[in-house]
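If you are new to this repository, start here. Below is one unmodified record pulled from the training split, so you can see the exact layout before writing a loader.
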Amino acid sequence: MSWRVPLARYPGMNKFVLDWMDGDERFLWRTGNPACPDRQDCLSSTRPLSIVTGQQVGFAGGPLYTLSKLASVIRLKRDLEKQGIPVNAYFWLATEDHDFNEVAQLHVPVAGGQRDLVCIRAVRATPSRVAVGSLPVPEELITQLLVLLDIERPSWLREGITFRDSFAELITSIAGNEVTLIDSLDPELRRAGAPLFEQIRSKHDEIQKTLHERAQQLEQAGYKEQVIPRDGDEYTLLFHIDAHGTRTPERTARLQPGARGGRAEARPYVTSTSALTRPLLQDFVLKPDIFIGGPAEVAYYAQLAPLHDLLDIPRPRVALRGHVLVAPKRVARAFERYGIDPAEVFASPDAILAKREPEGVARVHALANEAKRDLMKRIEQIGELALPADHSLAGSIERSIGHIEYHFDKLAERAIKGLVRKDRERYAAMRELVSTLYPDRHVQDRVASWFAYLCRNETFVERVVEEVEPDSPFFKVIEL
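And here is the target side for that same chain:
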């Protein structure tokens, strides 16, 4: 069983994306079906359509949204192939990112203890800008995961394996040959991107000007640019990777003492893209018909869209990844049993249940307000008697009123909690439902490990592929 919920009810959803999904195409085109991105009859084409998505190479596959991206690509590929349209699907491995602390942590839902996510992590003692893809997965991280999930050590977590290879092998194990993986630091890819890197360098000032103009346009429309300029002035376009794998903004690297000479464009393997230029490299080399991304990535495309024209790069049809949340059957049954709308789970259990006790909640508020009014009237009478004799009493009266209002409000709050918690079974079910789908006030797919769910349910991935709805104004809550 599953439930569809409007994307507008998803907490923290990017405002630009909501307007874009609703038909606002001022900054990014999306008209038409993803199956025909060029508004042409795909069946008449002799070449396969190409679809691409990608993600940072997080430990053990990262959060649930990573699987949602992969599932979106596979679902769209299957749907198109059923129509007789051949498709090549690609998954871009963002191995060049240098945020070690982000990839080296995982929030794991533990069986039998859905109320909380257990965070496992490995932390670097000192900050580093080394690209994480080629770094070995720390043994301490692997040990924590194996113990927590009580599983045997899989081959994709063998000793000494890198984040890149571990992530790639895990994805391959669930996607098979339906998706081709591409390493963003692959030497062949870098060589193919060399003409683009040279264009970016030669048109640096024009690109900066274009991005600043675009930022003003977005701001005037009520949106925020996704990537802000460094030091408030210049956008980082390219990075230089040294012999140790450390990434430094390219223009900064050229000024450092001991910097190697030679034409950078002749050595594309030492060049790394930024958040803004990564999509440009992808579109320049792969020329995808469709790009499937998360809300932030869709906003990236709105910000850099003018650069496609400036650099003469074909623009893909951008589609939003499907959004999927999951709940074990035991937890999800609370929806029907207690008449809960899935969109309500982003509130507290007390707030959800208070809606089910309208008469009792209203009566508590009425009694509290009535008591406050009566007490305030008595305080006024005391003031009328005493103030003529002691004017300093006015301050004490004001402070007393403030304390009384505060304590009456707290009393009413506690009374309502007691009211909605009187059915302990119902309250426990509500707490578990909220903490499963909105743990620590974070939407589940942004933080919770999808691999943990796979360990409990071998059909989990296929279920997500069947249920996911790419480029949809709805998100899904799936019962497992």
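Two things worth knowing about this chain: The longest strand covers residues 113-121. The two ends are 8 Å apart (CA to CA).
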